[in-house]
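Subject: sequence -> structure tokens, single chain

Hey, anyone have a minute? Need the predicted structure for the following. Not urgent.
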Amino acid sequence: MARYGYHIVGYFSKEKESEDAYNLACILMIPSYQRKGYGKFLISFSYELSKKEGKVGTPERPLSDLGRVSYHSYWTRVILTYLKGVETSVSIKEISDATCVRTDDIIVILQELSLIRYYKGQHILALPAKVVEHHLGTCGSAGYPVDPAKLQWTPHLTLSK
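Reply:
Had a minute. Here:
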């Protein structure tokens, strides 16, 4: 008979109701499990919950230094993976709707990667395939995958007054 052991590697708390659209209030990784993909797993898990809720989310601010690195890596991977599969023009809102990442966070990532430009009075995305592939190769691993099909969760319902 096989024996399975379980270890606590980290923790996160989900915001039930947030005026600032926070989908995660606190995330903590036990130091010996940091930089092993578990943080990205919890971040990804929180966004899968947001997708189930049909809400765009962002973590509670301010982000710690490690939190900033982890979220930026996660957002970069999610946004670029989405954009890699898009063959027509796309808006920041459409990216946000598909990924549940807040538009402000998307814009920050696209600016950091120099993928958004101001041209003839409007912002446009500049997405050469080689550049997208390069950035995907440098944003770190995806961490442990979250299988949304196995997620059994009912979002918190708010009562209208």
